[in-house]
Design goal:
single chain, alpha/beta, Rossmann fold, Alpha-Beta Plaits, 2 domains, 6-stranded mixed sheet, 25% helix, 26% strand, globular, disordered C terminus, nucleotide-binding
Length: 300
């Protein structure tokens, strides 16, 4: 079972008489949830994320729960005496993998983020963007129960940014929790379960949840057992679902999450039947896109 994390009346200040950066913060991070943290520069967002990652201790209050946690800072220390492959392989063994498995898993993550070409280059010679790819790869290596991302998309190219969004969807679909800060208001738009703003040292929930759909959406029409609910992994992808007939659903999901949703439907027991997939449209969906899925044996 995945662990949850809770902050109760947490406060943090630096120095015995320093000003409070955060105070009276309450936050529950449940398994399988995606939480966005917003706020102006200097309000304490990074301090909050470091508390969640247990890299910092609160001055007052309590942090309870010990999920297996990974953290990606905005600036990753690139000048480490490793190559990317050597660094990730070492971390894999720390996570309990055999060296051969750790090396294979490390290579897979480097390839996913477009960093395979410099797997054996000394990290001190990598660019900021290349170093950041190694940073996000290391955070995902051990399949964390809590993933904390502090401006982790900064410096990544477009393909790597999209891959990180897919990795976030995979983590939450697998029951892990993700808490992130990003300067782009469109980042993962439509998918967070909750959005909080750091303001005046406190944490304020956004009344709209920060979950209004935005960005390109994929439409998926699927059919499952009559009266059956969506598979849990599908429900955690940020999809909105409209039941159009007994067991028939019209699902909209951010395009970066569509492959995760399809995999959840097709690997469910019993598997769901995917009737139609419509990529992000440049137009309003046509009326037939909104129609219920056809009955078994009927002709389109």
């Amino acid at each position: 079972m995945h662990c949850a994390l809770r902050l109760s009346a947490v406060g943090r200040r630096y120095g015995i008489r320093g000003p409070w950066v955060l105070r009276g913060v309450d936050l529950a991070v449940a398994p399988g949830t995606l939480i966005r943290i917003e706020g102006a520069n200097g309000t304490g967002k990074s301090t909050l994320l470091r508390l969640l990652a247990r890299l910092d201790a609160p001055t007052e209050g309590r942090v309870t729960g010990r999920p297996r946690t990974a953290y990606v800072p905005e600036r990753f220390p690139a000048a480490l005496p490793f190559t990317p492959l050597g660094y990730l392989t070492h971390l894999g063994t720390v996570h309990g993998l055999s060296r051969a498995t750790a090396r294979r898993t490390a290579g897979t993550w480097l390839e996913r983020f477009g960093a395979g070409g410099y797997a054996d280059t000394p990290m001190a010679r990598l660019s900021k963007g290349s170093s950041q790819k190694v940073a996000v790869a290391q955070s995902l290596l051990g399949e964390p129960e809590l993933l904390v991302l502090d401006e982790a998309w900064t410096g990544l190219d477009a393909a790597a940014r999209a891959e990180l969004e897919r990795a976030v969807a995979e983590r939450t679909a697998a029951g892990g929790a993700v808490v992130f800060v990003d300067h782009d208001p469109a980042r993962l738009a439509g998918t967070p379960d909750a959005t909080y703003t750091v303001l005046d040292g406190g944490l304020k929930p956004r009344t709209d949840g920060g979950s209004s759909p935005a960005g390109p959406l994929t439409l998926i029409v699927a059919r499952g057992p009559a009266g059956g609910a969506l598979p849990p992994d599908a429900a955690r992808t940020g999809a909105t679902a409209l039941e159009t007939a007994p067991g028939g659903y019209r699902l909209t999901v951010p395009a970066s999450h569509s492959d995760i949703l399809l995999r959840a439907l097709l690997t469910a027991r019993p598997p769901w039947h995917v009737v139609r997939v419509t990529p992000p449209p440049d137009r309003t969906p046509a009326p037939d896109d909104l129609a219920p899925p056809p009955e078994p044996g009927s002709r389109p």
